[in-house]
């Protein structure tokens, strides 16, 4: 990733939050975003409307969980931090409550290989992590597990997480996941969709590496 200074990174997080809502993959303040920064992460503050969010309100948290005394990070800081700790190749974490991904997550459904673009998330499924109360360490553990060898997962009765080497890639993937969820949801209205084979997804995985926007 090109070097961005602290202020630019903070502003890029706010811009991405606004974009999530414009794109219809989130509503209100239910999403949150983090970016790896120095020996920690920059993360959205809890419950601040994106339109009013200021760069100085973005919270810095060390990888050890250290915080400024008056900081109010997103209630989901645990899974943001744990994902960045578990996945050195990941620099950005996007969490949102996109309508179709969340419908599937409420039903406890993973997304199967109904479309080859699922390979953009790293495998032949997008798993659905079991339910745990928002903001808890239990939810964080489930999320990290559901993301093993993957760049996205659903969270039961909750929403979706997309990660990437850059914020633009993670945002792009979040939109792709919601598109896949919408397609799968549509298929389920007609019947049981036929699936692509594991071998074909493996074939696509070999071609699709690096697809998507260039890192910002
Ligand atoms: P924050 O406003 O604390 O980021 O939380 C929103 C949310 O919906 C958590 O899943």
UniProtKB/TrEMBL annotation:
Pathway: Carbohydrate degradation. Coiled coil: none annotated. One of its GO terms (biological process) is arabinose catabolic process. GO terms for cellular component: cytosol. SMART domains: Aldolase_II (SM01007). Residues 11-185 form the Class II aldolase/adducin N-terminal domain. Keywords: Arabinose catabolism, Carbohydrate metabolism, Fucose metabolism, Lyase, Metal-binding. InterPro entries: Aldolase_class_II_sugar_metab (IPR050197), Aldolase_II/adducin_N (IPR001303), Aldolase_II/adducin_N_sf (IPR036409). One of its GO terms (molecular function) is transition metal ion binding. It comes from the Bacteria. PANTHER family: 3-OXO-TETRONATE 4-PHOSPHATE DECARBOXYLASE-RELATED (PTHR22789:SF0), FUCULOSE PHOSPHATE ALDOLASE (PTHR22789). This is L-fuculose-phosphate aldolase. It comes from Bradyrhizobium canariense.
